[in-house]
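hiii so um. not sure if this is the right channel but i have a protein structure encoded as tokens and i wanna go backwards to a sequence. like what aa goes where. can anyone help
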């Protein structure tokens, strides 16, 4: 159905209260965390069946944002909105229990009169689309033996297509209702997305509300904040009363009715305590259990948290951003207490600042990951996904933004992909890439050069970007560091300066090099030795900042572009998978007297968020087209008014969402894998599709909303307007740059 905008004309109506009302406010001392009316496109609605309204903002959560799922466009015809589908269309929907159901499709044939459906990969009875050329309803029987409790996968395949509006189209689908036989018999009229929100008058008081029938369910999947509550008003049109229940369910736990009540013909404000579910992903049902005419109205349902004072931090004068190339988080004690790797400088730094325990890189190799760090854009936006891609001049880097705001800017980079050839030289007063210039890439020399530059600019506001590369191949630390982790004699095939070539050959299919146990022990020792050696020079750099009198007024950020695999999942190196050994990276912020030392934040965040966080802590305007979000509130113990999730890519064939304990990996063929990072941080156990249905549905819905968004900076919004999309440029790849990259282990 066609979406319309509800215009709120008075402050009283926006607040959901009549100016004539003298009722005490039950929400005093609370503030809105998430407005569920604004997120109604993410709600599942059961009103005469579970209803899927195509061609509206509610579609994306069922069709993976139309990413590779067969949906090729949207349209409108009068009051009807619809989505075009090609030869096949995929739909993911949830139900509560295995039972006989009917999927009622309202569609219009274009290039096909034949439909063959599959439910959870089981073929169902074919349907002939013979009711004319206009929209008509067709039923698909869903046998109980094929229906699963939780998420179900409906595949619609068609017999042919015809060109429509530039697409090859089989049919246009207006809606799908998933109904029981009793719901079919009731002949209930399903609610259209555009009519869900209305101004409802009860007595003399009018409020904006989500209005459904007296027997209906409004279902949300949510991550509950600390000290969270649900607040809403409720009432019913017409005569009589309607019982209602607020029921909350978490995976592996019995459902809990956190509030029951009776809706009457007068508005009643209610709140329900959700604190027992703090930090959990839950399914929350707002359920009406009545009969008869007249709608039940949910006024301004929202998650609430205690009011907090407006934060006021003195801005930092300077910022140092350190990216330690190829450093997985679990090598460091702040992220993995059981690691053997000695990093006393990192340990001390972490104790003085804030540690994000579940930071995810936007990609699994350097160029796209660093592009996201410096631009605040998702890889799908900045398009730096291939070896020959280059950032265009239209990309705005953090260096350009801070330079425009009066900062001296200097870069000290030891990776050939973060170079002028690929567009990373924008916005620097002093730009150095040691690979391109043939200089030393040893951390000692890179830190020394950065320290010299900082000393020369210590009386100005400055931004120093440092990218060291010691943990990257070739692994060749001095013997004292190797012996810390492998004191035995070794005469095998692993030679330090050849580790890049060896790992590249080992990851081929079939492998050209096979490592035995002793080889693997040596490789791990070389890599760990590089990390410990790097830590020594990092500590010396921090001491130099202190000696210059800069520590107290300089924000220091430490992160990595990606990790490194050591046969964790059957391969070596990086740039090939989306497991945690490649995506989970360290992220730490230190700013004395502003950020609370020793703080650990467990929320999933992205390195994409670094630039937004830096600009806030520096007290400068945000970057105009940044798609990240500031992490300052999380560092200060606040619950942000949005889901804390991290999205990652691998080329155009993997899409990943990490939210709380759950990580969902979606492949290009739309098969998926989910892991429980709380119980299985090494991702050794793939969860069964029927396990943890709430976590899975929540993850897929948010990922679908993100993939369907054109404005990735505001991906959660129903109305997708504008947004940023860079057009990639092609880098000139000559023999020199290829040789420089090959020396780092990149095959060209």
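sure thing!! here u go:
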């Amino acid at each position: 159905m066609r979406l319309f905008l509800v215009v709120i004309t008075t402050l009283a109506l926006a607040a959901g209260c009549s100016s004539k009302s003298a009722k005490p406010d039950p929400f005093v001392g609370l503030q809105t965390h998430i407005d569920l009316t604004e997120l109604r496109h993410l709600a599942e609605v059961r009103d005469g069946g579970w209803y899927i309204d195509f061609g509206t903002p509610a579609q994306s959560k069922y069709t993976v944002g139309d990413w590779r799922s067969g949906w090729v466009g949207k349209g409108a015809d009068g009051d009807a909105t619809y989505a075009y589908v090609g030869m096949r269309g995929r739909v993911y929907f949830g139900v509560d229990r295995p039972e006989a159901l009917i999927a009622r499709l309202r569609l219009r044939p274009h290039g096909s009169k034949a439909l063959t459906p599959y439910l959870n990969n089981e073929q169902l009875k074919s349907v002939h689309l013979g009711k004319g050329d206009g929209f008509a309803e067709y039923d698909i029987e869903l046998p109980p033996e094929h229906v699963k409790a939780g998420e179900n996968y409906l595949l619609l395949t068609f017999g042919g297509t015809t060109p429509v509006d530039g697409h090859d189209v089989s049919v246009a689908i207006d809606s799908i209702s998933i109904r029981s036989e009793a719901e079919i018999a009731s002949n209930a009229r399903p609610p259209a997305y555009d009519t869900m929100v209305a101004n409802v008058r009860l007595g003399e008081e009018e409020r904006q509300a989500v209005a459904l029938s007296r027997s209906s369910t409004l279902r949300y999947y949510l991550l509950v904040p600390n000290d969270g509550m649900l607040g809403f008003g409720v009432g019913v049109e017409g005569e009589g009363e309607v019982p209602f229940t607020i029921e909350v369910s978490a995976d592996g736990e019995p459902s809990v009715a956190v509030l029951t009540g009776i809706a009457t013909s007068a508005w009643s404000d209610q709140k329900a305590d959700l604190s027992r579910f703090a930090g959990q992903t839950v399914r929350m049902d707002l359920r009406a259990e009545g009969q008869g005419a007249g709608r039940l109205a949910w006024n301004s349902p929202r998650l609430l948290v205690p009011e907090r004072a407006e934060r006021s931090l003195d801005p930092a004068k300077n910022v140092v951003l350190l990216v330690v190339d190829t450093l997985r988080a679990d090598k460091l004690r702040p992220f993995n207490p059981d690691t053997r790797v000695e990093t006393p400088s990192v340990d001390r730094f972490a104790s003085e600042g804030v540690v994000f325990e579940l930071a995810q890189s936007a990609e699994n190799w350097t160029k796209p990951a660093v592009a996201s760090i410096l631009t605040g854009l998702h890889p799908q936006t900045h398009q730096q996904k291939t070896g020959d891609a280059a950032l265009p001049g239209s990309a705005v880097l953090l260096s350009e933004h801070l330079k425009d705001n009066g900062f001296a800017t200097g870069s000290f980079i030891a990776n050939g992909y973060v170079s002028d050839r690929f567009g990373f030289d924008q916005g620097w007063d002093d730009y150095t890439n040691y690979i391109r210039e043939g200089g030393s890439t040893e951390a000692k020399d890179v830190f020394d050069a950065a320290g010299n530059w900082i000393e020369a600019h210590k009386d100005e506001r400055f931004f120093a970007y440092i990218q060291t590369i010691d943990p990257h191949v070739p692994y060749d630390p001095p013997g004292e560091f190797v012996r810390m982790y492998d004191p035995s004699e070794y005469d095998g095939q692993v030679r330090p300066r050849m580790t890049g070539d060896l790992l590249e050959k080992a990851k081929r299919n079939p492998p050209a090099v096979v490592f035995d146990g002793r080889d693997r022990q040596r490789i791990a020792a070389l890599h760990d030795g590089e990390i410990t050696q790097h830590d020594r020079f990092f500590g010396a750099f921090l001491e130099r900042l202190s000696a210059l009198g800069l520590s107290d007024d300089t924000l220091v950020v430490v992160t990595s572009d990606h990790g490194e695999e050591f046969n964790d999942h059957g391969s070596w190196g990086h740039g090939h998978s989306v497991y945690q050994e490649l995506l989970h990276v360290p992220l730490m912020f230190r700013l004395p007297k502003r950020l609370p030392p020793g703080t650990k934040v467990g929320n999933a965040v992205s390195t994409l968020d670094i630039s937004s966080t830096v600009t806030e802590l520096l007290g400068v305007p945000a970057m105009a087209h940044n798609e990240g979000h500031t992490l300052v509130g999380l560092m200060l113990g606040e619950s942000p008014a949005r889901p804390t999730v991290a999205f990652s890519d691998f080329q155009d064939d993997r899409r990943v969402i990490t939210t709380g304990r759950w990580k969902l990996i979606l492949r290009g063929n739309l098969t998926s894998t989910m892991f429980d990072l709380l119980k299985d941080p090494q991702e050794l156990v793939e969860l069964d599709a029927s396990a943890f249905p709430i976590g899975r549905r929540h993850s897929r819905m948010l990922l679908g909303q993100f993939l369907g968004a054109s404005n990735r900076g505001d991906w959660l919004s129903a109305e997708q307007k504008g947004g940023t999309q860079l057009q990639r440029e092609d880098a000139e790849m000559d023999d020199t740059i290829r040789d420089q990259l090959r020396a780092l282990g990149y095959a060209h």
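oh and The first strand starts at residue 30 and ends at 35.
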